[in-house]
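Quick one: structure for this chain?
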Amino acid sequence: MIVTITACAVLTLALGWWIFTPTLDRDGLSDDAIQQQALRERKQAVYENLKDLHFEHLAGKLTDADFERTREMLEREAATVVAALEAAPDSSQP
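Got it. Here's what it folds into:
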């Protein structure tokens, strides 16, 4: 139970970071560039969460069921973000 709460807390922090970080660096960027930057940051956060999840599982801090459930959720999120990046209009960085 504690592991599930910890995993949810990490995901919540990553989501908060993803939401608020792009608002700090918007000087001179188009809306498309801002969207792509946010998607890239979101992708990075999801990949870091997957890496941390694997580490926690290898360390024995997660049950197999919790690991599989969380891994599947993060992999779906990663697939969604990658698809959004591929579909986003290509805009050049300043």
